[in-house]
Amino acid sequence: MDFTDKVCLITGASSGIGKAIAIELAERDVILILISRSKEKLEKIRKEIKNKNTSIYPCDVVDNEKISSIISSVTNKFGKIDILINCAGFGIYEPFIKQKDDDVRRLMEVNYFGIVNTCRQVVPIMIRQGYGHIVNVSSMVGRIGFAGYSGYCASKFAVSGFTESLNEELYDTGVKVHLICPSGTNTNFFDHPSFKNHYHRRFPKKLTDPKTVANAIIDAIEKNKFEVNIGFLESVFLKGKYVFPNLFRWIQRVIRRRRGYK
Which domains does the chain have, with CATH numbers? Predict the structure, then answer.
């Protein structure tokens, strides 16, 4: 696929996976529309990638009215949106009984409804065009539930289910849908205070490089892959969930103990 002059809108673009995919696509002469809450970080990445066809829009993805305004501005200027990549999200690591309702609601608002907001605006545009790619970044914990992640898992399971349904609804429209499920990735995701003593904070080398995820996204677009699970062991674990459910549960509990979950 030739990405030259394709209009690509990326949420969560100022860091992590969003930043990595912006950098990779900038090298392919894409017209980048970058959305994130931090204007300062967006300005920094625009200078870093040195792509003259980059526009930045500071915005929280939960602000549906502003998202609508941004997408209207983009379509008025370029007349199309070729690719939408939803990366905005965050996580909290805490037992369910200690979680605050406001934190769980915020997880759902950003991780799930943030994706719904952008898709609500972009899907009709792509249907009228007769083409386009929608990439929703979920997680391997959007496929497998782990202790300490009940709020985050719920938000990412919602993303996975929504994306599967959307894929079926858009099957014969020319709009391609992609579900990306990375394993733990080396981003600022683990900077949240709740991860202070988390396993991945102690062993960051075991995390996936954001560039690996970015390349998987590009590959999914080029080859029209619907679902991409990133992480060999996690992918095997996911298959085991359905083939050997009892063994799967036993292994989960072993992992839980070894990682010091409390």
Answer: 7-231 (3.40.50.720)
Q: Are 241 and 144 in contact (CB under 8 A)?
A: yes
**Alpha helix segments (H runs only) across the chain:** 16-26, 39-49, 64-78, 101-107, 114-129, 150-169, 199-202, 210-223, 232-243, 245-258
What does pTM read for this prediction?
Answer: 0.90
Cβ-contact 14, 39 below 8 angstroms: no
Q: What is the pLDDT of residue 90?
A: 87
152 is catalytic: yes
CA proximity to 133, closest of 236, 262, 10 = 10
* Parts of the chain with a pLDDT under 70: 186-206, 255-262
Residue 23, number of CB atoms within 10 A of its CB: 18
Q: What is the largest CA-CA distance in the chain?
A: 55
96 within 8 A of 69, measured Cβ to Cβ: no
pLDDT of residue 204: 47
Rounded (5°) CA angle 93-18-79 = 135
Residue 165 CB neighbours (<10 A) = 11
The residues, any chain, with a CB within 8 Å of residue 118's CB and separated by 6 or more, are: 9, 11, 61, 67, 71, 84, 86
pLDDT in tens, 35-72: 999 999 999 999 998 778 999 999 999 999 999 999 99
152, 171, 199, 261: the catalytic one is 152
The per-residue pLDDT for 77 is 97
